[in-house]
């Protein structure tokens, strides 16, 4: 717990400063998180005896993040979807050069999965940051997910009894999940001021975050369990890997972005 707290105290100011000021520091932060995470994902696949195309996956992940930032400057956000065809094609072509007698298609599949799971989904963090001058919606997402994660972790340790998904994550409990969900509603209400959200929208987003943030966490747990690993890596002291820290954002970020665009900024 002490190691966790020290890591949080050291890392949080850097993250918050990058989000607030945006620009190149924020882009570099998102790039670093994405590149480290996609390599952690590929390393997990390597433990399963699979051989993803690291180079292609990394290049495409970087391309997704950088293109998202470039698209904002050109009012070109819809084209963000169009590049997926090129990225998938590049991953498929990489199969020709993997030089494996069998399981090449599986290697290509996990290469594509990694670049979508990390690069594509996480690029929506760039779009969310752009919706306000100083990243108000992203602050809302960060604070709500952090509050939910901390609450579910502490509640699970304190009074968790009923296993949520023992085959996937033995330590997660229904008590922790429910408490985390409730705290996500409270946090969404408290931090609604960061993006000047009406209480109805704040609570709706709190519900989405409370559900899909934990589902996103379970998806990463499923990946680790399938690979026979406890953490995605040991890079972040007391927390495991970078992918372990951003997993709740991966599914949640696109949902939050499209809700804001379709129902708040319409």
TrEMBL record:
<keyword id="KW-0594">Phospholipid biosynthesis</keyword>
<feature type="transmembrane region" description="Helical">
    <location>
        <begin position="105"/>
        <end position="128"/>
    </location>
</feature>
<keyword id="KW-0808">Transferase</keyword>
<dbReference type="GO" id="GO:0005886">
    <property type="term" value="C:plasma membrane"/>
</dbReference>
<keyword id="KW-0444">Lipid biosynthesis</keyword>
<feature type="transmembrane region" description="Helical">
    <location>
        <begin position="176"/>
        <end position="193"/>
    </location>
</feature>
<protein>
    <recommendedName>
        <fullName>Phosphatidate cytidylyltransferase</fullName>
        <ecNumber>2.7.7.41</ecNumber>
    </recommendedName>
</protein>
<feature type="transmembrane region" description="Helical">
    <location>
        <begin position="199"/>
        <end position="219"/>
    </location>
</feature>
<feature type="transmembrane region" description="Helical">
    <location>
        <begin position="246"/>
        <end position="265"/>
    </location>
</feature>
<keyword id="KW-0472">Membrane</keyword>
<dbReference type="GO" id="GO:0016024">
    <property type="term" value="P:CDP-diacylglycerol biosynthetic process"/>
</dbReference>
<feature type="transmembrane region" description="Helical">
    <location>
        <begin position="134"/>
        <end position="155"/>
    </location>
</feature>
<comment type="pathway">
    <text>Phospholipid metabolism; CDP-diacylglycerol biosynthesis; CDP-diacylglycerol from sn-glycerol 3-phosphate: step 3/3.</text>
</comment>
<feature type="transmembrane region" description="Helical">
    <location>
        <begin position="50"/>
        <end position="72"/>
    </location>
</feature>
<comment type="similarity">
    <text>Belongs to the CDS family.</text>
</comment>
<dbReference type="Pfam" id="PF01148">
    <property type="entry name" value="CTP_transf_1"/>
</dbReference>
<keyword id="KW-1208">Phospholipid metabolism</keyword>
<keyword id="KW-0443">Lipid metabolism</keyword>
<dbReference type="GO" id="GO:0004605">
    <property type="term" value="F:phosphatidate cytidylyltransferase activity"/>
</dbReference>
<keyword id="KW-0812">Transmembrane</keyword>
<keyword id="KW-0548">Nucleotidyltransferase</keyword>
<feature type="transmembrane region" description="Helical">
    <location>
        <begin position="6"/>
        <end position="38"/>
    </location>
</feature>
<comment type="pathway">
    <text>Lipid metabolism.</text>
</comment>
<keyword id="KW-1003">Cell membrane</keyword>
<feature type="transmembrane region" description="Helical">
    <location>
        <begin position="78"/>
        <end position="98"/>
    </location>
</feature>
<keyword id="KW-1133">Transmembrane helix</keyword>
């Amino acid at each position: 717990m002490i190691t966790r707290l020290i890591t949080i105290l050291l890392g949080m100011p850097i993250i918050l400063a990058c989000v607030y000021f945006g620009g190149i520091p924020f882009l570099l932060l998102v790039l670093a998180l994405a590149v480290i995470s996609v390599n952690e994902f590929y390393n997990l696949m390597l433990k399963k005896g699979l051989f993803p195309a690291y180079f292609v996956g990394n290049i495409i992940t970087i391309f997704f993040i950088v293109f998202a930032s470039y698209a904002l400057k050109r009012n070109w956000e819809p084209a963000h979807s169009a590049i997926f065809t090129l990225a998938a094609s590049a991953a498929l072509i990489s199969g020709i050069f993997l030089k494996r007698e069998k399981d090449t298609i599986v290697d290509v599949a996990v290469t594509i999965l990694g670049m979508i799971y990390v690069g594509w989904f996480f690029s929506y963090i760039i779009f969310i940051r752009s919706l306000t001058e100083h990243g108000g919606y992203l602050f809302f997402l960060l604070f709500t997910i952090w509050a939910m994660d901390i609450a579910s972790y502490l509640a699970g340790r304190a009074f968790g009894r009923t296993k949520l998904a023992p085959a996937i994550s033995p330590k997660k409990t229904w008590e922790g999940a429910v408490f985390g969900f409730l705290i996500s509603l409270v946090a969404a209400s408290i931090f609604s001021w960061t993006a000047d959200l009406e209480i109805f929208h704040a609570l709706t987003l709190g519900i989405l975050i409370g559900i899909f943030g934990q589902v996103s966490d379970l998806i990463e747990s499923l990946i680790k369990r399938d690979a026979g690993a406890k953490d995605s890596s040991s890079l972040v002291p007391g927390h495991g890997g970078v992918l372990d820290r951003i997993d709740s954002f991966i599914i949640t970020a696109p949902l939050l972005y499209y809700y804001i665009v379709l129902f708040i900024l319409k």
